């Protein structure tokens, strides 16, 4: 019943921007923590960002601080990831993921299928 569908990925040049969207269904977004992970070939999965529902606290990985911004629109049941000043090392499959409750988890309970982001000149 819980579904997460990512969109907005694509090919962009270094220094460019993309906005990823995650449309949630089967639950009310405002009551759960939700965030973004990414994984590139040959690399471990990395938690990029997360926003909690209990206190509104936001987490960013050091590698994206100052460049990425996470936000949510509870009316649309959608979470976004605005990515600016993109670098080739940002190339990965980006996954939307939900926790079991209101706090950001290290191991989410539900995942989307992912959207490919490629940063290359």
**CA gyration radius, whole angstroms:** 13 Å
The general outline is globular
- Tell me the quaternary state: single chain
Number of strands: 11
Mean pLDDT across every amino acid position:
95
Q: Enumerate how many helices there are, as a single number.
A: 0
Helix content: under 10%
Residue fraction in strands: over 45%
Walk me through the structure.
This protein has 121 residues and is mainly beta. Helices cover 0% and strands 47% of the residues. The chain has strands at 3-7, 10-12, 18-25, 34-39, 46-51, 58-60, 68-73, 78-83, 92-98, 110-111, 115-119. Strands 2, 4, 5, 6, 9, 10 and 11 form a seven-stranded mixed β-sheet that branches. A four-stranded antiparallel β-sheet has the order 1-3-8-7, with no helix packed on it. Strand 5 (46-51) and strand 6 (58-60) form a beta hairpin. The chain is globular and about 40 Å long. The relative contact order is 0.32.
List its traits.
121 residues; mainly beta; globular
Please summarize what this structure is:
The protein is mostly beta strands.
Topology:
Blueprint: E1 3-7, E2 10-12, E3 18-25, E4 34-39, E5 46-51, E6 58-60, E7 68-73, E8 78-83, E9 92-98, E10 110-111, E11 115-119
